[in-house]
Design goal:
Number of helices of chain A: 1
Number of strands of chain B: 11
Strand content of chain B: 15-25%
CATH class of the largest domain in chain B: Alpha Beta
Structural class of chain A: mainly beta
CATH superfamily of the largest domain in chain B: Thiolase/Chalcone synthase
Radius of gyration of chain B: 19 Å
Largest interface: A-B, 35 and 31 residues
Structural class of chain B: alpha/beta
Number of helices of chain B: 13
Shape of chain B: globular
Largest sheet of chain B: 11 strands, mixed
Largest sheet of chain A: 5 strands, antiparallel
Number of domains of chain A: 1
Distance between the termini of chain B: 16 Å
Oligomer: heterodimer
CATH topology of the largest domain in chain B: Peroxisomal Thiolase, Chain A, domain 1
Order of helices and strands of chain B: EHEHHEHEHHHHEHEHEHEHEHEE
Shape of chain A: globular
Chain lengths: 148, 355
């Protein structure tokens, strides 16, 4: 009885892939290309990020619309310390941002050094990562718009 | 509608269950709820539980916890990956069908081994939000700022809600945060943790569980001297995306309330008490407005979820707390509320009466 106990490694994995479809897929592809897109609803307003179906009326939505890369902070908070799984290494703002040409605000980070630099109504613009793969974190966040 | 009532409850909430498994937690609670009305599992027609694999860190974790119901006899059961209040809704529907007369509902959550505020990011949109891992308090803070800056609610009101919860929780053995001395000034002096939300604005996390026995019609009258009759129950859902709805409102809470109150043949101002599942003071302020609670109804006499927020059980605990007040004769009409999802996305309202 000198055999070693049986041993097996346990590897946790999620061995499935999903397709993201014509609408979410278009948004993610846009991220890779460095553009932001939304979708037009039947009342003419533009929802960002887009969805395949209207969340209120359930109508199928198909008209993809490019929106601006800058917008206005609608609400904000401050995350310090940064969360370990998040894309950010340092303290940062999180905000709802109403992009130019959009009618619903989008959630993302605002990259400033302290909460004192954040305010509702401030203008911010997109900061892109150089390496992009079609993921929400291709957008590094938004930074305060500098007056031209 | 078939008459259905809460006839027994049992609950337990503590800051952290360190040496207790979910099965060990639930055995005494399930036993106590059944024994309170003299039932064994053989007398239960349907068993429904609520829990989360994301807390247990294991797929189908609820199957293990079924050990707490008993290995024998075989049972007819179901499970929801939601708060136990939603399991109670399923059991209520099962009782409406009329094939069974009794149901056991239970739920539990042990979030202390992990970081709940991070785990909750996984309930968000999987493409646009979850990969950014926003902590739950930050998501709630965006809603709170919209509420404060809209002028609908002042910071003072949020502090008053926090103080009321902590004071009401004094003497509640299942509250994990209570104080008879805390003042509005104390709360306002706290530094924000998720600006503008302060520590007292966020519900106190707890581990725990809750078990409830439901019975229909004459079976309920046999089992309990004063059953808490469920006169109306409603569950409604708002859009998932944070940007696609007005976060200062919770239309699904208003709709669920109007459905439940109308089914009960009551008006909101006739309710003696309301137990609200509000994970933040700002969400409680929204709920008070959406439900139309005008001051004549006592809000969260137990301290509410702010005093102990057991993930997956806090909603069922609200129903148990409200039902207990009816069963013990302290109230005639009570409302219990449960929520799920970010920023009050889903809302369930259960209106109960003694007569």
């Amino acid at each position: 009885m000198d055999e070693a106990p049986l041993r097996a490694d346990l590897i946790l994995e999620y061995p499935f892939t999903r397709t993201t479809g014509p609408v979410v897929g278009a948004f993610l592809t846009g991220l890779r290309e460095g553009i932001l897109i939304g979708i037009r609803r039947s009342d003419g307003t533009v929802m960002v990020p887009p969805a395949e179906y209207d969340p209120v009326t359930s109508e199928p939505l198909t008209e993809v619309v490019e929106v601006g890369q800058a917008g206005e902070v609608v609400s904000w908070t401050w995350v310090d310390p940064p969360r370990p799984q998040s894309p950010w290494d340092g303290p940062h703002g999180l905000a709802l941002i109403l992009l130019d040409g959009a009618d619903t605000p989008m959630f993302h980070a605002v990259l400033v050094d302290s909460p004192g630099e954040l305010a509702t109504g401030m203008r911010v613009s997109a900061v892109w990562r150089e390496e992009r793969e079609g993921h929400i974190a291709d957008l590094a966040g938004f930074s305060p718009e500098v007056d031209a | 509608m078939r008459e259905v009532a809460v006839v027994a409850t049992a609950l337990h909430q503590v800051p952290a269950l360190t040496d207790t498994t979910e099965v060990q937690l639930m055995v005494p609670l399930i036993n106590a709820a059944r024994a309170a009305v003299g039932l064994t599992q053989a007398d239960i027609g349907f068993t429904c539980s609520g829990s989360s694999d994301f807390l247990a860190g294991q797929a189908f974790s609820f199957v293990q916890t079924l050990d707490a119901v008993g290995a024998f006899p075989p049972i007819c059961e179901s499970h929801v990956e939601m708060d136990g209040a939603f399991a109670l809704y399923e059991a209520w529907v099962k009782l409406q069908i009329g094939e069974v007369d009794t149901a056991l509902v239970f739920s539990y959550g042990k979030s202390s081994p992990g970081s709940l505020r991070d785990v909750l990011a996984l309930q968000l949109d999987p493409y646009f939000l979850a990969p950014l891992w926003p902590p739950a308090d930050a998501v709630a803070a965006l809603q709170a700022r919209l509420l404060l800056e809209s002028g609908l609610v002042g910071a003072q009101e949020l502090a008053e809600i926090a103080v009321r919860s902590q004071r009401n929780a004094v003497g509640n053995p299942n509250a994990v945060r209570s104080s008879s001395k805390v003042t509005v000034a104390d709360v306002m002096a706290e530094a924000p943790v998720a600006d503008p939300l302060r520590p007292s604005d966020l519900a106190a996390e707890s581990d725990g569980g809750c078990a409830v026995v439901l019975a229909a019609g004459d079976r309920a009258r046999e089992l309990c001297g004063r059953p808490a009759w469920i006169r109306g129950i409603g569950h409604r859902i708002d859009a998932h995306g944070l940007g696609t709805r007005d976060l200062t409102r919770a239309p699904s809470a208003e709709l669920a309330t109007s459905v439940a109150v109308a089914a009960a043949g009551l008006t909101v101002d006739s309710l003696d008490l309301a137990e609200l599942h509000s994970p933040t003071t700002s969400q409680e302020a929204i709920l008070v407005r959406e439900l139309g609670l005008d001051g004549s109804t006592e809000v969260n006499p137990s301290g509410g979820a702010l005093a102990a927020n057991t993930m997956m059980a806090a909603g069922l605990v609200r129903i148990a707390e409200a039902a207990d007040r009816i069963i013990d004769g302290g109230a005639d009409r009570a409302l219990a509320h449960a929520t799920s999802g970010p920023c009050l996305q889903q809302n369930l309202v259960c209106v109960m009466a003694g007569g």
